Major facilitator superfamily (MFS) profile domain-containing protein (Catenulispora yoronensis), 437 residues
Amino acid sequence: MSSTLRSDAAAAAAPAGSVPVSTSRHAAPPSLLHQPKAVWAVAFACVISFMGIGLVDPILPALASQLSATPSQVTMLFTSYLVVTAVAMLLTGFVSSRIGAKRTLVAGLAVIVVFAALAGASGTVGQIVGLRAGWGVGNALFIATSLAVIVGSASGGFAGAIILYESALGVGIALGPLVGGELGGISWRGPFFGVAVLMLIALVATIVLVEPTPVPARKVSIVEPIKALRHRGLLTLALTALCYNWGFFTLLGYAPFPMELGTHQLGYVFTAWGVLVAVFAVFAAPRLQARFGIARTLYVNLALFAVNILVVGLCVENKAALITAVIVAGVFIGVNNTITTQAVMTVSPVERPIASASYGFVRFIGGGLAPYFAGRLAEHYNIHVAFYVGAAVVAVGIVILASGHKLLAEAERNQTADGHGVAAADEALAEELGSAS
């Protein structure tokens, strides 16, 4: 099983006509900064797509105030978006195996453009919640396919592709609150129309720059991502990610309310948070994994993240401490994103798009339900309880992860078999990015 996975990984990562990394001990890793235009087009679209996660954060209080809604009603913008994204992830392989990767990317981007624009033109929270659900369908089609396209097309091997994808995620998460804060300062409708315009640009770039992709010979059924979860390694990491995302989106969806800041100020706070997500995903995570391994890094990182959310719950009345704790959370989120994504793509024997869809389905369920439950807990008990529960769920994730400790070691061996060792390649690529910046 492991040998099959390693050969598949090497085939997917190696550019056509090149010598696989594993056959040459002295070959330098390909440059991460020299990519085909198609990869940059998809990466740009990823940035805009991930902007949608934090885009609404700065305008949540304004939406609650101007549309006469409660915080729990407003946080449904996250819930509808992420829960629908989760369910739609199950359809991505079915669709892409019948129309090809490029058409799936284009379809996903087109859906996002339409529903983002309609959300900006709507007049009630209920309408926006419903339209964010439609937005989630497009997001699912795009996210799962874009990761597979980048992994298969980027130079720099598997490790470089993951870093490139996580860089796009980090930049998107960082820019989302900034753009949302600036446009939201004009009108709460601004962020939605802004995403529609940017996604339209990404749509055109994808159509022009990404070469047509053939329709795969094998058709994927809808149930394959569910069946893939029978593999214990994939299920363990997915459930751990569900718990982690519960804490993540409790923080992202409900922390803006106790801050009591204006739209611009909220945008700056979450931009600082997003910058830390990007920096630690690209530069710190590879070094930590190289030094401590997947398991130890994730155990400590999740434990620190749980403590961080607990601090947020304890400090909701202390604005300075609350803001600092929320920004610092970006450190733990960035590290978790990169290491877990790499582990998921190597721990399971199934094809990468199917693994990505299975993983996305489970983890987005946690992210979608968390903001809504945080709002309900705050209304029925107090705001502290919402964050206490978020911290406890992340702690449960550590227990789940520990139950698959041996499988994490297997994932690490699979990554090492891709070449000189993923850790070494990651460090070299991260150093290259650091010197370039």
